[in-house]
Amino acid sequence: MNQSGAGTEAYTTVSGEHRSELEIKRSRFITVLRRTESEDEARALIASLRREFHDARHHCSAFILGPHRSVQRSNDDGEPSGTAGAPMLEALAKRETALGESSLSDVTAVTVRYFGGILLGAGGLVRAYSESVSSALDTARFIERRRLRLCALPAPHAAAGRLENELRAAGFTVRGTQYGAEAATISVALPDSAPALEEFTARVAALTSGDTSPEILGTEWIDLD
Asked: What are the tens digits of pLDDT across the range 70-112?
């Protein structure tokens, strides 16, 4: 399933930062993956790794950003044109996750190369950089992000716990309950669709005998465990 279109409701990203290393013909390829949600964050990672691995010859990079994967950049950092950043970007762009191929975003990959004295040639470099990113992705942890509709459900203090448990048991994503001075408010996240809202509203009416109804707060991208 390709999630890069205008109707994107879900995509995959990486959890935190992940590192892996390969040695290919005596050259060390250290790949760092990090979740990034802006170009500033991506470039900050690249800059920090330049400082950390200041004695390395190359710090090649690629990143994909946004729910629609609308920002895609790569940099060869001194390697022959098209032999590093482009294959790294392709490895990210075509990665298959639980949501299918081409669903990975908000991720930056930086591959640091320590030259081992043996020239790899253009084809060898393409394979090395692609393999370095793919190998790092193989052992990284992924997170699904989904655009959900947020609802607030008011409830009396005495009924809030029971209502929250029944909503969870029915399969709804309950984000928590806040207890105010006069009443509690249960926060629920729903798929961003009219049928999902109708189902939730009907279930709330049944559970509360029509005494309360949800307030729609808007939509938000939320990490799913």
From this structure: 999 999 999 999 999 999 999 999 999 988 888 999 999 999 9
**Cα–Cα dist 187/44, whole Å:** 35
- The SS3 call for residue 113 is strand
CATH of 10-140, one of 1.20.120.1200, 3.30.230.30, 3.40.47.10, 3.40.190.10: 3.30.230.30
How far is Cα 207 from Cα 160, in angstroms, rounded to an integer? 11
Cβ atoms 64, 106 nearer than 8 A? yes
Distance between CA atoms of 12 and 4, rounded to whole angstroms?
A: 11
pTM across the whole model? 0.83
Q: Residue 149 corresponds to which tokens in the numbers above?
A: 């509709």
* Nearest Cα to Cα of residue 11 among 20, 2, 19: 2
DSSP code for 94: T
Mind listing the pLDDT tens digit for each residue in 138-190? 999 999 999 999 999 999 999 999 999 999 999 999 999 999 999 999 999 99
